[in-house]
Amino acid sequence: MVKNGEFSLSKPIFTELNGIVARKEEALEWGVFRGEGQEKNYTPDVSLGEHGHYTPLPTLPGAPELNRVFNAGVADLQACEAFERATAFFLFGALQQFFFDGNKRTSRFMMNGVLMSHGIDAISVPAAKTQEFNEKMVRFYLSKDATEMMKFLAGCHPEAEAILPPPEEDGN
Question: Record's InterPro entries (predicted)?
Answer without folding.
Answer: Fido (IPR003812), Fido-like_dom_sf (IPR036597)
